[in-house]
Amino acid sequence: MITRDQIATILEEIALLLELKGENPFKIRAYRTGAEVVQTHSEDLLALAGEEDLKPLEAVKGIGSALAKKFHELVTTGKLAFYDDLKAEFPETIFELFEIQGLGPKKVKALYEELGIDSAASLKTACEKGEVAGLSGFGQKTEKKILEAIAFQEANADQFRMGHVAPQVEEIRDALKAHPQTTRVEVAGSYRRGKETVHDLDFLVATPKPKEIMDFFVSQPFVESVINHGSTKSSIRLEDGLQCDLRAVSPEEYPCALVYFTGSKEHNIALRSLALKQGYSLNEYSLSPAEPKSPKTKTTSQASNVTPKKKPPAIHEEADVYKALGLDYIEPELRENAGEIEAAANHSLPRLVETGNLHGTFHNHTTASDGQNSLREMADAAMELGLEYLGIADHSKSSFQANGLDEKRLLKQVAEIRKLNDEFGKKFRIFAGTECDILKDGTLDFDEATLAQLDYSVASVHSSFTLGEAAMTKRIIKAIESPYITMLGHLTGRLLLKREPYAVDIPAVIDAAAATGTIIELNASPWRLDMDWRWWRLAAEKGVRCSINPDAHRTAALQFLYLGVKSARKGWLTKNDVINCLPLSKIETELQRKRASASK
Ligand code: DGT
Ligand code: CA
Ligand code: CA
Ligand code: ZN
Asked: Quick check: CB of 261 below 6 Å from ligand 1?
C-alpha cells in the first residue's frame, strides 16, 4: 500500500522535472501544493482516492480533478504512468543535482541544457574543468561553492540524520520484538546515544534461538540487500542505503552486550580499564573475575596489580554492570567518555531532562509565513501532546522567501492570538512572538516598539552566512543585546549533512547570552539540532538557559521535541536548565525577566 509520504515524494519529483522542462509555473505549483496537502490534510485522503467516485477528493482544497485522478491511479495501482514517462525522459541521476546545496531548479536546468550535466559526478568534472564558471548566472565564485558543496556531501555520504531514521528504527525494533523467540531487544550504538547523525544502526536481541532470529531478520520486507548472514550476527542494507547490524546473544549475556554495543568505543575502553583495576574482566558478553596473570607474561602495571575477585557479580540489567564497578547508572546519551564515568563514581551525575518534563514550547510557524497549518491547528496539536502553551514565531519581513510578516501583519496575528486565548481560557495559552531576522549588521528586522507588543521573540540569522567569524559573532551579540530579544534561534545555521555551520565564536555568544539574560534555543528540527549538544554543559555552567523548540512548520513536526530532548540530555541538561519545563503559571514571568531587568 502506497503511503502519503511516497505520494508526496512522487509529486515533488514531478514538480522538479516539469521545472526542468520549463513547464507552466501554475501547473508546477499545483503538484507542490498537492504534495503538501497529501502530507498534512487531516482526512484520510488515501481512502478517498481509492473510491470510484472522486468528487469528495476533488472537493478538498488544493486538489483539482487532474490531481484526484493521479491519486486514484497511485492508490489503486501503486504506479503512475505520467510520472514513469516523465522520469524516463531524464537519467535517474538527475535528482542528485537537486540535493546539492545552493542549486535550485533554474541552475539545474541551465547546467543540464547547456552543458549536458546530469549527475553529481558530471557536475564535479565540469566544475574542475572550469566549464561551469562560464555559464551565464554562474561565475567563478558559484563554481567554487558548488565544488565545496559536493566535497561536503561526499564526506558525509555514509551518514544519516538521527531524526530521519527514527521511523525505520521503530519499524525494525517492532519486527524483532514481535518474534516469539525474542526475549529482549534494543537499538544500541550511536542512535541509542542520541548522536545527531549515525553511520549505521546496531540492534541487539536476547534469545535462546539466535539462528531463527537471524533467518527472520534477513528476510524482512524492509531488507534491500543482505550484507552478511551469520548464525549470531547479520548485516542488511535498507532501501535508502542505511546499514543495520544485528547481534543475537543469550539472555545472560544481554546486559554486558548492551553496554558494549551502545558504546561509545571510548566509553567502553575507559570502563574496561576501570574493571581491570578492580579485578574484573569486562567484555561484550560478561563481567567476570580477571584471570590471574602468570608471572612470565609481561603485563601493564595496572593488570599486574589486580586482585582477582572470587565470585562474579549477579547481572540482570545494564545498571548491574555499572553498580558492580561502583558506578551509578550512566544514561546512554552520556556515554562519550566525557567525564561521565568520574561523575558516576562520585555520584554527581545530573538527573537528565525528560520529554515528560516539557510543559510547552516556543518557535513554531503557521500559514502566516511558511508553515502549513493555522494558529488553531497548531494549538490543537500542542494540546493533544499534553502541552500547556505554544509559542508562535513566524518569520519577519526580511525573510521574504518565507513570506515573512511585516509590522501590520504581525500585529494582526497578535490580535488573532489574543482572541484565541480568550477562547482557551486557563487551560492553554498561545504566546505571540516572532522569529525576527538578524540583519547583516546586527540590527533587528523589527524596531523595539513593535517587539515590545509581543510576548517574546526569537532572533535568528537567515542571510549573509559568509560574513566571517568576527563579524558574525559581533552581529549576533549586537542582536541579543536588545532587551526585547528573549531567545537566540538556531545559533550556527547548520543543516546536518547538508550545510556547514557558519563561522561564529560560540563561547563568546554563550558569554553574551549569560551577560544579557538571553535564552539559547536548542532547535529540535532533525535538520538542525542547533545549538549542538557539545556546548550545553558550558552554557549551563555559565547560567544560560535552554529552550527546546521544534521550529515546527506543520502540526506533526511538534513531535520533533523528543529529538531536542535527546540532544539536551546528551548535553547533560536537567529540567532546571530548560525553560519550557516551567509550567504555564511560571513561564510568563520568565519571558518578561530580561525586559524587566533592562528597564530597571
Ligand atoms: P556509528 O555507527 O559510526 O554512528 O557509531 P557507533 O558508536 O554506533 O559505532 P559502531 O556501529 O561501529 O559500533 C557500535 C558499538 O560497538 C560502539 O559504539 C562501541 C562498540 N565497538 C565497536 N568497535 C569497538 C572497538 O573496537 N572497541 C570497543 N571497545 N568497542 C567497540
Ligand atoms: Ca552504529
Ligand atoms: Ca555497527
Ligand atoms: Zn529560522
From this structure: yes
Q: Are residues 570 and 471 in the same domain?
A: yes
| Nearest atom of ligand 1 to the alpha carbon of 189 | 8
166: left (phi over 0), alpha (psi -120 to 50) or beta: alpha
Query: Is the predicted pLDDT of residue 515 greater than 80, yes or no?
Result: yes
Q: Distance between CA atoms of 576 and 332, rounded to whole angstroms?
A: 20
Domain boundaries, position 198: 160-251
Residue at 350 is within a domain? no
Substitution candidate for ligand 1 out of 256, 259, 268 with most atoms within 8 A of CB: 268
What Å distances lie between residue 436 and 320, 458, 466, CA to CA?
50, 6, 19
- E strand segments, 310-369: 360-361
DSSP string, 209-260: -HHHHHHHHHTSTT-SEEEEE-SSEEEEE-TTS-EEEEEEE-TTTHHHHHHH
The verdict on the CB of residue 266 being under 6 Å from ligand 1 is no
Whether 453 and 324 share a structural domain: no
Distance 395 CA to ligand 4 centre (A): 7
Q: Indicate if ligand 1 lies below 6 Å from the C-beta of 263.
A: yes
Instruction: List, as one string, the DSSP characters of 440-490.
Output: TTS-BSS-HHHHTTSS--EEE--S-TTS-HHHHHHHHHHHHTSTT--EE-S
Q: What would the pLDDT profile of 123-174 be if each residue is shown by its tens digit?
A: 999 999 999 999 988 999 999 999 999 998 888 889 999 999 999 999 999 9
Say if ligand 1 is within 6 A of residue 158 CB: no
Do 404 and 437 form a contact (C-beta atoms < 8 A)? yes
Residue 195's CATH number: 3.30.460.10
Same domain, 483 and 435: yes
* pTM, entire model: 0.88
328-359 b/e (C-beta count within 10 Å ≥ 16 → b): bebbbbbbbbbebbebbeeeebbebbebebbb
What percentage of the chain exceeds 90 in pLDDT?
84
Among candidate residues 207, 226, 251, the one where a domain is terminated: 251
Q: What is the whole-number distance in angstroms between the Cα of residue 22 and the centre of ligand 1?
A: 48
Question: Domain holding 295: CATH number?
Answer: 3.30.210.10
Backbone angles phi, psi at 454, to 5 degrees: -100, 165
Q: Which pLDDT band, with edges at 50, 70 and 90, does 293 fall under?
A: low
CB 433 within 8 A of CB 393: yes
CA angle 263, 264, 265 (to 5 degrees): 95
Bridge partners for 521 per DSSP = 547
Cα separation, 356 vs 360, in Å, equals 11
* 415, 544: one domain: yes
CA angle in degrees (0–180, nearest 5) for 359-361-364: 155
Domain count, the chain: 4
Q: Report the CATH number at residue 94.
A: 1.10.150.110
**Residue 84: which residues within 8 A CB-CB, separation 6 or more?**
none
Q: Using CA atoms, how far apart are residues 210 and 181, in angstroms rounded to an integer?
A: 8
pLDDT digits (tens, 9 = 90+) for 409-448: 999 999 999 999 999 999 899 999 999 999 999 999 999 9
CA of 178 to the centre of ligand 3 (A): 22
Domain C-terminal end among 277, 311, 345 = 345
Q: Say whether both 550 and 418 belong to one domain.
A: yes
Same domain, 228 and 100: no
* Residue 81 and residue 29 share a domain: yes
